[in-house]
Amino acid sequence: MPYSKAERSKATPETRQPPSLTIVVPCYNEEESLPFLLAGIDTLNAHLLQSNRIAEPLTLMLVDDGSADRTWELIQNTSARFKIAGVRLSRNHGHQRALMAGLMQADSDVIVSMDADLQDDPNATAEMIDNYMQGDDIVFGVRASRATDSRLKRSSARGYYRLLSMLGVDLIPDHADYRLLSRKARDTLASFGESNLYLRGLVHQLGFGNSIVTYDRAERSAGNSKYNLRRMISLAIDGITSFSVRPLRLITISGFVIAAASFLFIAYALVAWFAGRTLPGWTSTTLPIYFLGGAHLIALGVIGEYIGKIYTETKARPRYIIDQTVHTDAKVSTAVE
Ligand code: UDP
Ligand code: MG
């Protein structure tokens, strides 16, 4: 476990009232999973109200990330026993930006973010709120196991977290975007202006009193994953380049090592030449060319990644563009259920 109870940063004790709650869910072509989500949130809402964890029905904020299916239509026409806030982005901005848009729009004491496909078990939200009541400002949802992932996703995730920690990026392994933020934590997050968003890394930098809650990650309720390989690689590269410049340092170091090796080789070649033992050597000529060619391209690519980041950051374009918003009040149930 990355964060034991003893290690976690201690929250300042303060008395807190049962908070108002917004659950932010980015949705990209999720028409198939929305009914399941609404049912799951309905159960959660009833449970949280009954156990006095929240004082009023929660708000479900659905951010439509430029879906091409009926997602927005469903969001607009849904009413439930909790409040629904719909935000439609002007086009597909990607998961992280859609989530950021929702977080910034929310107006409540605590904000919980989760995925639309119920892979993040809503029941863990109750425990997150308990931790908030004890003074935590951030509660990270951490998956207990990766049993629902393919072997490839599991091993690549493990390798990636190891690489991140080697590069000095401090993250909570197996925490994705299921987390609770207090209003204070959210307001502080708002002051981070970068446009290349890697929220799980950014939130970890905030500090404050925080803790983790473990949950079992379920299979997707319906529909397919909206993360293809390209999006996954792009998120992975953002995770590294947004938090570490160590790859640039590694290039410099490997440059020195290769230069030192080539000095030795030059010395050897000169000695061989003086000794008259020079044979036309195809191998010793071509191998260094291939090797150095590859090393140069990798180095240029890494530097290019960072320059690309600088380029997009200096433009300071908006991270997301909101097209429309809708609000639906909680349906008051009169019937005895
Ligand atoms: N998502 C989004 N915009 C995108 C891609 C995904 O808002 O461009 C949302 C998606 O609707 C879901 C969440 O991000 O609520 C996580 O995506 P998904 O479940 O497809 O990813 P996976 O769980 O397979 O990593
Ligand atoms: Mg998912």
UniProtKB/TrEMBL annotation:
Residues 22-185 form the Glycosyltransferase 2-like domain. One of its GO terms (cellular component) is plasma membrane. Keywords: Glycosyltransferase, Membrane, Transferase, Transmembrane, Transmembrane helix. One of its GO terms (molecular function) is glycosyltransferase activity. The chain crosses the membrane at residues 250-275, 287-307. Its EC number is 2.4.-.-. InterPro entries: Glyco_trans_2-like, Glycosyltransferase_2, Nucleotide-diphossugar_trans. Gene3D superfamilies: Spore Coat Polysaccharide Biosynthesis Protein SpsA, Chain A. The keyword Transmembrane applies. It is an enzyme of class 2 (transferase). SUPFAM superfamilies: Nucleotide-diphospho-sugar transferases. It is a multi-pass membrane protein. Its main location: membrane. It is found in: Membrane. The keyword Membrane applies. This is Putative glycosyltransferase YkoT. The gene is ykoT.
